[in-house]
């Protein structure tokens, strides 16, 4: 058997930056094989997060509290659930301190939906946390821009398939920016990698794992005894028509296409088997090998990719190179609607654009992180409203901190009281323990409650305002929360800007203007002066029904977004 190393060294000699605590980068040059007019963007492998992202308390970084972490050296053990072994395993990269990660990207023929958002938020969290631990990460996420679905959609719109796909690739990138997903190190596209795909298919054929039928090439699953090792499926379970394409020319119904002969009106490339295009599964095998080599650390995607896509990837890659090996296969659970998987084929999906038109993108990100990544999450208005209310509370608390600290930027003492330090240490431990235990983000989000409550007590209660080192405590608490939010991808550019956006979206959902709310507040104040409490309560309730909460204080009445009253009642009934 030939080896992938012979034909498939990584396309680039990917070097990791030697500056682990900076945003210095290494540029990767890409080659456009089929479209010389396409201008490929500079690709980068980013190093670790900057020093400012590491929590600082009393001049000591929190990672030092873990025990003398050295820059660029991973700070703690991490466990990840491996779909291959069906259990959590201690993460150990193949190359010390460096991680190669490939995540299957979108097939770009339409706007992406919330199910896609969950996949890429999940792996963005993993990417960020690996960097936080001190690993140098090369993250590869592809675009499928040659596929049956793309061709069908392009024919509907009378548009060139590659142009249509390029347009939706750009739309996807915008969605990821809104969700604060970091750009991967490399974003390869199928149409740019035909030579690599064709070479891999040739190697598979030469090694006796594939056969030609007219202008098509099929992988022979019977020639690969390990087929089914990832999904646990047996060959007899793979009936034609059930996620396996029907074709009477196949030797086994489970055989799958590596190369498809050209058809009228479809894009094609020349190959040893005649003009045509690649099958879906071979694309990721070839691109992951091109950028990461035949053996790398993490391969990820949604649970629906376990079979057949990732099962077929394993078969192809091993057929091309017997040393092919991925250490950890990681898959996230579905987003469901009424207990059914959200998907375009079922027509029960909501696009990312539709949701962020009404809810802040970071509220959507928080919602997606509020359930452990391996479990299904049910899409509902009440959960999105809850996430929106929660993130408003977080940013409002930190904005209050910012206002207070801006008045005390000099003369702060270095020490903070033991009770505050205990809150900080507990939060830090909860964060490190939970994230290192298979990215348990719901526990981290819940753990925010104590430091946020402590800040509000220090800022707004009589007892808190009397504390001698109150400002120092607030500064330390704000810093650790801010840095944890940065690792989670939940840190806004500006607290005040995010709060204003959250208010505007709440008004949009309520179908009200701020002037109308202020008018209602004035009417309510007048009613209270006249002791017309029935009218006063009715105004408050009317606004609560549409998600506007009124807050009375000695300084007057203000408003904030809240979960609409009917949804609150629905929550109570459900529990």
Architecture overview:
This protein has three domains: 276 residues, Rossmann fold, CATH 3.40.50.620; 106 residues, Four Helix Bundle (Hemerythrin (Met), subunit A) (Up-down Bundle); 64 residues, no CATH class. The strands form seven sheets. Strands 8-7-13-14 form a four-stranded parallel sheet, sandwiched between helices. A four-stranded antiparallel sheet has the order 9-10-11-12. The longest helix is centred in the C-terminal third of the chain and has 25 residues. β13, α8 and β14 form a beta-alpha-beta unit. It has 20 helices and 19 strands. α7 packs across α8 and α11 runs antiparallel to α17. It has 575 residues and is of the alpha/beta class. The N terminus is likely disordered. Its EC number is 6.1.1.16. This is cysteine--tRNA ligase. GO terms for molecular function: ATP binding; cysteine-tRNA ligase activity; metal ion binding.
Topology, number of strands: 19
Supply the CATH class of the largest domain.
Answer: Alpha Beta
Physical arrangement of strands within the biggest beta sheet: 8-7-13-14
CATH architecture of the largest domain: 3-Layer(aba) Sandwich
* Share in β-strands: 5-15%
Structural class by sheet pairing and helices: alpha/beta
Note poorly predicted spans.
1-71
User: If you compute it from the alpha carbons, what radius of gyration comes out, rounded to the nearest whole angstrom?
Assistant: 27 Å
Keywords: Aminoacyl-tRNA synthetase, ATP-binding, Chloroplast, Ligase, Metal-binding, Mitochondrion, Nucleotide-binding, Plastid, Protein biosynthesis, Transit peptide, Zinc
Protein name: cysteine--tRNA ligase
Cofactor: Zn(2+)
Region (Disordered): 53-79
